[in-house]
Specification:
By secondary structure, this protein is α+β, with helices and mostly antiparallel strands. Strands 1, 2, 3, 4, 7, 10, 11, 12 and 13 form a nine-stranded mixed β-sheet that branches. A two-stranded antiparallel ribbon has the order 5-6. Strand 10 and strand 11 form a beta hairpin.
């Protein structure tokens, strides 16, 4: 059973969950390091881990677990997730997001809204998805994104089963479309954006992304990194596991 209580940062209770609104261009590891350093600076000895990676080019809900709550990370990682974002059609990128330059432009003037809605609906359900090269998956001791940035490709990347519970198109203003996705653990939204572009025959990539929810946890309850650091700094010095 996951304990959903969220206590004040620094509370000496053996651990807590911190709901963070991750800023753009921060890695999940950057956030963990920042919070861990804040605890250390305040005189606390506190383990810190994150419950599900969020890409640097994405913002939104990132759950951190501290102290004894880190034992519950696996349970949180298994929860379904909800995202909102924008896909740009008619062009692609190597990373399937804004990390790498655009290439292979195509006209989107012939696309109809109903075509886009139908293509999104066709991607719902269970499917096998191969992790993108620009991802944090390990391969022979290195992250795939480290190899990708060196121009190395790993074609034998192992596919994993995911479930797209819902792929909703919120608005169409070509070449941009706004969407909302409800997916299972392990789903790469960048890959789904790429797949949508391929189904429409024009290409596409993930232009922006925000994680809205993880299970029953919502980004509306999240706090900025700076505010959490400030709250930790105001706590009395004490030690927690």
């Amino acid at each position: 059973m996951i304990d959903k209580r969220r206590d004040a940062p620094g509370a000496d209770n053996g651990g807590e969950f911190l709901l963070v609104d991750k800023p753009l261009d921060w890695t999940s590891f950057d956030v963990v390091a920042k919070i861990r350093n804040a605890y250390n600076a305040a005189g606390h000895k506190r383990k810190v881990g994150h419950c599900g990676t969020l890409d640097p080019r994405a913002t939104g809900l990132l759950i951190l677990a501290t102290g004894k709550k880190t034992k519950q990370i696996a349970g949180l990682e298994a929860l379904d997730k909800v995202y909102e974002g924008i896909i740009k059609l008619g062009v692609m990128t190597e990373s399937h997001d804004t990390e790498t330059p655009e290439h292979s432009s195509s006209s989107v003037s012939h696309l109809l809204a109903e075509d886009i809605h139908a293509a999104a609906a066709s991607l719902e359900g269970k499917q096998m998805q191969k992790p993108p090269m620009h991802s944090a998956v390990w391969h022979k001791g290195k992250r795939l994104y480290e190899l990708a940035r060196k121009g190395v490709q790993v074609p034998e990347r192992k596919s994993r089963e995911i479930t797209v519970h819902r792929f909703e198109i919120l608005s169409v203003e070509l070449p941009f479309i706004r969407f909302r996705l409800d997916v299972s653990k392990g789903a790469y939204i960048r890959v789904l954006a790429h797949d949508l572009g391929q189904k429409l025959g024009v290409g596409g990539y993930l232009y922006s992304l925000r994680r809205i929810a993880i299970g029953s946890f919502n980004v509306t309850d999240a706090t900025s990194v700076n505010d959490i650091v400030e709250s930790i700094g105001k706590q009395d010095n004490r030690t927690a596991e």
